[in-house]
Sequence to fold (177 residues):
Amino acid sequence: METAVPRLSASGVRPGYERRVSGRYWWYSWCVALCLLTVSCKDWSYGDGYHYIEVLPEEGWSMEREIFFSTSQLEVGKPYDIELVLRLERGHRYRSLPLGVTFESPDRQISTKVVQIPLQHQRVKTGGYSIVEQLVPLEHGVSFSKEGVYTYSIRHLSTDSVIPGVIEVGLIIEPVK
Fold:
């Protein structure tokens, strides 16, 4: 009795298998293309506000590094909430962080204040890594009186020259809800 040996095509694959595999890849390609099209058509904007995150070097936030946030996209007379975003390594060693926050209006009026930020050691929001995101309200219901460029600058005032574990610093300006 002879055993049947499957015949192979010239490419060394069983007949009909190439069509199934290429058809499967064709189907996967269409699914990926459809997902990318769906994601790219979604409105990912944050609305009427301003959102910006500054990525810091691996060694941490240096005392000399002042971070600037500037925007001219704000409506005159509309109240806004302003929040600071800190993204930290989960094992950071600080309990609080003193920050100098400077605000400059389009007509060059400058105001400065010192804000003591209590740093939480529990997981507030993670991004899949060992990162803690902390939102800190800076101001509530602020109205801007003129059109033009408004600038916030933030600098840490800690006695340490470099604060390790601070990954990103950001500013969110959103209309009051």
Summary: The first helix runs from residue 17 to 41. Helices lie at 17-41. Residues 35-46 have pLDDT under 50 and may be disordered. The chain is about 15% helix and 40% strand.
